[in-house]
Amino acid sequence: MLVRLLYASRAGERLTSAGIDAILAHSRAYNPAHGITGVLCYSGELFMQMLEGGRDEVNRLYADIVRDPRHRDIVLLDYAEIAERRFAGWTMGHVNLAKANPSLLLKYSEHARLDPYAMSGRMSLALLEELVSTAAIVGRAEAVE
Ligand SMILES: Cc1cc2nc3c(=O)[nH]c(=O)nc-3n(C[C@H](O)[C@H](O)[C@H](O)COP(=O)(O)O)c2cc1C
């Protein structure tokens, strides 16, 4: 059974771009072996991550992620059973939210800045979908072999 999980969090103060690369490298090593796909959005301050996969695997990974000291204030935005994956080709795609079009943020939020803490799960999902379909801001996504 497939599920998808969407959460947001605040990056720890000491997280550098090398730190993000380390998270992505770990994800791209771990996720394919556990049937996990998804996308990690990073704004320089906030994370939004979508995980997709088998229910047990997604739940187990999320439990590890929640305990990770590299971020805090983790909020579960959406959790649902799904019929198919959205990111089947991505071991863990990466979206740089710093490059997101402010009008896109404004479309779903009260202000032209990312604030998933003030958004409903449904709006967060819709925003994520649009961010990802804006190919220009998607980087370092890797296909599953
Ligand atoms: C924002 C964020 C996203 C993460 N995403 C993943 C992921 O998709 N896959 C993964 O294996 N680890 C991910 N991690 C790392 C896990 O939190 C954790 O470090 C990893 O599962 C190793 O746990 P362990 O040291 O207990 O073995 C992420 C960490 C953070 C801070």
State the gist of this model.
The chain has helices at 17-30, 55-66, 102-108, 121-133, and strands spanning 2-11, 37-42, 46-54, 71-82, 93-96, 138-139. It is an alpha+beta fold and 145 residues long. The two termini are 22 Å apart.
Secondary-structure blueprint of this entry?
Elements lengths: L1 E10 L5 H14 L6 E6 L3 E9 H12 L4 E12 L10 E4 L5 H7 L12 H13 L4 E2 L6
Parallel strand pairs: 2-5
Antiparallel strand pairs: 1-3, 1-4, 2-3, 5-6
Helix pairs in contact: 3-4
Which molecules are bound besides the chains? flavin mononucleotide
Instruction: Find the count of extended strands (DSSP E, 2+ residues).
Output: 6
Low-confidence segments, given as residue ranges, are: none
Give the quaternary arrangement of the chains.
single chain
- Written as H for each helix and E for each strand, in order along the chain, the element string is EHEEHEEHHE
Helical content class: 25-40%
